[in-house]
Amino acid sequence: MRLAGKVAVVTGASRGIGRAIAQRLAQDGARVVVDHPGEDPEAQEVVESIRSQGGDAIAVSADVQDPEAVKHLFDETVQRYSTVDILVNNAGICPFVSWFDLTVDVWDRIHGVNLRGAFLCSQAASRIMRDHGHGGRIISISSISALVGGSFQTAYTPTKAGIRSLMQSLAIVLGPYGITCNSILPGTILTDINREHYQDPQILARDTARVPVGRLGRPEDIAHVAAFLASDEAQYINGADILVDGGLFVNLQ
Ligand code: NAD
Ligand code: RM4
After folding, report:
1. Is residue 1 one of the residues assigned to a domain?
2. Number of structural domains found in the chain
3. What is the phi-psi region of residue 163: left when phi exceeds 0, alpha when psi lies from -120 to 50, beta otherwise?
């Protein structure tokens, strides 16, 4: 229960990595706000799963690209739980598109959710943390894609590099307020974001074979690290990246 009494907002928490993080932070005692875009019955399922284990959670619908929606997300959080101690910028999209087919609309949509969303949520959360004077944690789900290219991810990889860079700058700005800002860089985790891509057994076998530990990642692999970064034990980690990829990056050649 190392997060007992803490309030955490996890964006895009109805599925995949965000869901695992929300559940893990709740297991460690945090009260969790499960953000999701639009109508999403899966968000309520996450809330119910947390409550059934004795935890406390609510779901709030907010598209992270929309400043008004982000205001609503944090207003609801403060109204229900009085403050926010932990923000996890997890919401993200990655349509796999070839470079010559990439449109301005798709580029803007990916940048809107992934990077503008992280900006809006980080600013809103840090204002509350600063005003309440209790410090905090901002943890952003960047990617191994911040470090390497991807031929069908030409709009996506710059957003992941941008999120990592945003955390580095915010580490400087917010450190004096006791707010640490760090990135987690997952390797390849099998979730809805890449399920279609991995329907091809040859691509799945090729990418699995590249990972020295012999498997793709699971959402829980990322959730464990997020819970650690949210804890008091990580108070001196600021402006850092943690690569969680089974050794994939060091094996790329
Ligand atoms: P996912 O598709 O299962 O989850 C993405 C979540 O983001 C969903 O819950 C979705 O509803 C939410 N979302 C999408 N648009 C949103 C919006 N406008 N506002 C709020 N929420 C929104 O995929 P995932 O793999 O769990 O991805 C989570 C994060 O992890 C993403 O930022 C992704 O870039 C990152 N990541 C994933 C992998 C991987 O291999 N799966 C690797 C590195 C990084
Ligand atoms: C990640 C990384 C993964 C891919 C996801 C969609 O950042 O590139 O390999 O599965 O994006």
Report:
1. no
2. 1
3. alpha
**What is the per-residue pLDDT across 202-252, written as a single tens digit (0 to 9) for each?**
999 999 999 999 999 999 999 999 999 999 999 999 999 999 999 999 999
**76's tokens:** 């609801």
Active site residue 145: no
3-39 b/e with 16+ CB inside 10 Å = b?
beebbbbbbbbbbbbbbbbbbbbbbbebbbbbbbbee
| Within-domain flag for 2 | no
Q: Are 8 and 19 in contact (CB under 8 A)?
A: no
pLDDT tens digit sequence for 4-40:
999 999 999 999 999 999 999 999 999 999 999 999 9
Please check whether residue 208 lies inside any domain of the structure.
yes
Pocket test for ligand 1, best of 11, 14, 17, 44 (most atoms within 8 A of CB): 17
Does the pTM surpass 0.85? The reply is: yes
* Ligand 1 contact via 157 beta carbon (within 6 Å): no
Query: What is the extent of the structural domain holding 123?
Result: 7-251
Whether 156 sits among the annotated catalytic residues: the reply is: yes
Contact 250, 228 (CB under 8 A): no
Domain containing 23 — which CATH number?
3.40.50.720
